[in-house]
Design a protein that fits this description.
This protein is an all-beta fold and 99 residues long. Helices cover 0% and strands 62% of the residues. It starts with a strand and ends with a strand.
């Protein structure tokens, strides 16, 4: 059985045992996390959410995404700037789907 959840503006298709990367949450490793915005679970399609459905997860560790580079450039003006950014993420493991 799988579910589709929404967190941080992203949608994830998850099954028990899956590990996903979500936006950084203020929890440490080993703490429990519950997703209440369930769009699809156990064959039920939500309008927009499935009533009473939750997805239980446990926080594995905080991680950083790959570095992306932002480049500013103005032609013929000798203006070039390059900066980088690494998004703060959290890896969570899905435990159960309660539909």
């Amino acid at each position: 059985m799988y579910a589709i959840i929404r967190d941080g503006g992203h949608q994830f298709r998850v099954e028990p045992g899956d590990s996903i990367l979500i936006e950084r949450v203020g929890l440490s490793a080993g703490e429990a996390l519950t997703f209440k915005e369930v769009l699809f679970a156990g064959g039920k399609v939500g309008v927009p959410l499935v009533e009473g459905a939750t997805v239980e997860a446990v926080v594995e560790r905080p991680v950083k995404a790959r570095k992306i580079y932002i480049v500013k450039y103005k032609r013929r003006k000798n203006y070039r700037r390059r900066t980088g950014h690494r998004q703060q993420l959290t890896r969570v493991r899905i435990k159960t789907i309660n539909a």
